[in-house]
Amino acid sequence: MMKEYSAYEGQTFIIEWYYDSQGKSIAFDYYKTLSVQDRIKVLRLFKRMGDAGEIKDKTKFNYEGDQVYAFKPQPDRFLCFFFQGQKIVVTNAFRKKQPKLPEQEKDRALRFKKDYEIRTKGGKYYE
Predict the structure, then answer these.
(1) Is the CB of residue 26 less than 8 Å from the CB of residue 93?
(2) Which residues face 90 on adjacent strands?
(3) d(CA 46, CA 49)
(4) pLDDT tens figures, 24-76
(5) What's 90's domain CATH number?
(6) Per-residue b or e along 82-117, where b marks 16 or more CB atoms closer than 10 Å to that residue's CB
(7) Alpha helices in the chain (DSSP H)
(8) Comparing C-alpha atoms, which of 79, 67, 90 is closest to residue 17?
(9) What are phi and psi of 34, to 5 degrees?
(10) Does 113 have pLDDT greater than 50?
(11) Number of H helices, E strands in the chain
């Protein structure tokens, strides 16, 4: 099956789904389970960031520390990181059920970021 890397290609940023070495994308799989209305909320944020290059509203996009950011289409969260070449890679997603970002979700994003960087540098990510 063909991987759908690109979530949105804007004038400023390309937003991509992260895939692990087995070809699975937790974030994209989660996105596909959302209702049409919730998918539209996610895509609006991706479009805004991709085209304008920033979202100043912290209730919609926020820095979570350790180079991890979150798109925040309520009540969901899509964690991501910035990568060279004007790219944002969306690593994982979940429904927010508590005030603070769950540590295991942030840890997962950091693991995926490291894996992406290693596989990209080695030329093995886009195979």
Answers:
(1) yes
(2) 17, 80
(3) 5
(4) 999 999 999 999 999 999 999 999 999 999 999 999 999 999 999 999 999 99
(5) 3.30.2310.20
(6) ebeeeebbbbbbbeeeeeebeeebbebbbebbebbe
(7) 26-33, 36-52, 103-121
(8) 90
(9) -75, 155
(10) yes
(11) 3, 6
Q: State how many domains the chain has.
A: 1
For tokens 């890679």, name the residue: 89
Spatial neighbors of 100 by CB under 8 A, at least 6 apart, are: none
Find where tokens 């995926």 sit: 112
Amino acid letter, 37: Q
Instruction: Kindly report the length of the chain.
Output: 127
pLDDT of residue 1: 47
Whether 125 is in a domain gets the answer: no
What whole-number distance in Å separates Cα of residue 59 and Cα of residue 3? 30
Parent domain of 65: 6-120
What confidence tens digit (pLDDT) does each residue in 64-87 have? 999 999 999 999 999 999 999 899
With respect to residue 54, please indicate whether it lies within any of the assigned structural domains.
Answer: yes
Q: What residues does 69 pair with on adjacent strands?
A: 63, 80
Q: What's this model's pTM, rounded to 2 decimal places?
A: 0.94
